[in-house]
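Morning F.,

Quick status update on the modeling queue. The single chain you submitted on Monday has been processed. Sequence for confirmation:
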Amino acid sequence: MKNDNAARDAGIVLGPMGIGTNVWGRGGKPLPGIGEVFDAAIDAGIRLIDTAELYQGGGSELSIALALAERRERGSPGGEPVILSKFFPWPWRLSPRSLESALRGSLVRLGIPRLDVYLLHFPFPPLPLETWVAALGDAFEAGLVRAVGVSNCDAGQVRRAHEVLAKRGIPLACDEVEFSLLNRRAEKNGTLAACRDLGVPVIAYRPLGSGILPASAPTIPGFRSLMAPKTDEEGLESLRKVLASIGESRGGKTSAQIALNWTMMKGTIPIPGARTLAHLEENAGALGWKLEGGDVEALDKAADRVARIG
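Structure tokens below.
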């Protein structure tokens, strides 16, 4: 499955992997020293940097701005990053003009004149999805962004968003959804198929199940633990054994690398988080090779046996 057609139509190449930055920064302040991880990601071919105005009260965007400034000062070689941010439709944002205002705020925090990709974070009421997608189209036509997309949209919502933009000749650059071996909802409910039919790339957030999928993953801190998938421990351990077995057969790949490669084999662009070089290097180890069909099938079956609780 080709997963970047629409983005290429928009002049943007997203894949094959990005980096999630929802833990970069804290309390509206940037995370010092993140430039080293940022540079390592770009050098490893991981160019998609995913953020949002909501992350860390703007601290994530400020962290990226700091990393971009440091990279410019060093004159670091290699490709240019693709910066993606998102607009959150708070219920008090009742005018489409609030999207442009929020976008300009993100541009200020990021320290850039134009954003590569801008998404509607959630298709929340009271304003309909079409209203916000039309506002994204306005931002595109105003030259404030190079591409626009949506996030957390199901198959029907993706089709609606695509139709609104298609009438104006604007590509829908992507749909960003939660997707992992522990959350295959987008695959089961037809969202991945709808995006494939429309040529819309799918970006997969929490591709490691909020960090609980690999056996060696650290405990999830704070409120983020509430977002972790609720799974049957016996089923989870069975899935981890399959991951470890496949990793051993692939020359010592880690469980995280196997899980990330599985999401790519499903035609998605995973955006695992990374706050350290070790995290980044492990993520990058999922690139440049492919699982065999039998491995994917074995992982599918093991994942299907992981019972959900709640």
